[in-house]
Amino acid sequence: xxxxxxxxxxxxxxxxxxxxxxxxxxxxxxxxxxxxxxxxxxxxxxxxxxxxxxxxxxxxxxxxxxxxxxxxxxxxxxxxxxxxxxxxxxxxxxxxxxxxxxxxxxxxxxxxxxxxxxxxxxxxxxxxxxxxxxxxxxxxxxxxxxxxxxxxxxxxxxxxxxxxxxxxxxxxxxxxxxxxxxxxxxxxxxxxxxxxxxxxxxxxxxxxxxxxxxxxxxxxxxxxxxxxxxxxxxxxxxxxxxxxxxxxxxxxxxxxxxxxxxxxxxxxxxxxxxxxxxxxxxxxxxxxxxxxxxxxxxxxxxxxxxxxxxxxxxxxxxxxxxxxxxxxxxxxxxxxxxxxxxxxxxxxxxxxxxxxxxxxx
Length: 361
Known about the structure:
Layout: E1 5-10, H1 18-23, E2 25-30, E3 35-38, E4 40-44, E5 47-52, E6 58-61, E7 71-77, E8 80-82, E9 88-91, E10 95-101, E11 112-119, H2 125-129, E12 155-165, E13 174-181, E14 186-191, E15 194-196, E16 201-205, E17 210-215, E18 226-233, H3 237-242, E19 272-282, E20 291-298, H4 306-326, H5 337-341
Parallel strand pairs: 9-13, 16-20
Antiparallel strand pairs: 1-5, 2-3, 2-6, 4-5, 7-10, 8-9, 11-12, 12-13, 14-15, 14-17, 18-19, 19-20
């Protein structure tokens, strides 16, 4: 029999810090109290000794010596575009994510505890130390705690972010500037230089030229720029997606077809009735509303010569003179004689001009 039980454990001094070696301890489970108790009696030479009055489960406890701060990285789910000057553009429909890792050093890690972010606000550690309001605006001093992925508001957004681990190690703040674009390009279908209203029905002749204009407007100080224009002729995007249409300005495979909806330049339409759909998108995926115009194309008419136009004008003038003189009374006609004598055909010099209407041949 025995009255005491001693346990001695020697530690791997090469993998532990001085703080850990000097703070190691032996614990045993007191079954009667159903609680763990510290039974350390000696700590020397890299070994720790514990003494208990009976056999029981035991454990050697070595504190975590985490003196390394975590590291935080930013990621984006959705369309982004990095401009040649290094500016990072994102859509307001994209999600901003932050991830924190507490890297292992000498086998010790306490784990990231919290991520903080300040949006268009300087980092203030007084905000971090105090209570925060989760209902307050995201990224403000009142609510600096990152709670999950979010959509940035349109505009230039400077985000300062950092993490703190469970040992209260805080990393230096990192900064990312996002140019958040939430405005789609403005588009128009144009015929012979004249813009058509979406939803309109127009008449055209064979040979009329159609183009699509697209401009990405500046909004809240941000514009990512036009990226592409899409054209569908006689087959809607829904029909293309369902595989029930082909379309195209000249049949399958041509521009405006389901297999080739990338608009590359001006086009004409053959005679007949057509429906044209169009849209444009910017570099971060903001897409304009789908425009639709119905077009009736008829055969081109032969050009009218200058001589034909003059002859037609003369006929209209003579008809006008005839209508005026038919309404005049006989005693009123002499005072207009000079006018009629100067007519384009000099037709009113005939003496019958002055006869009463009922006596004229």
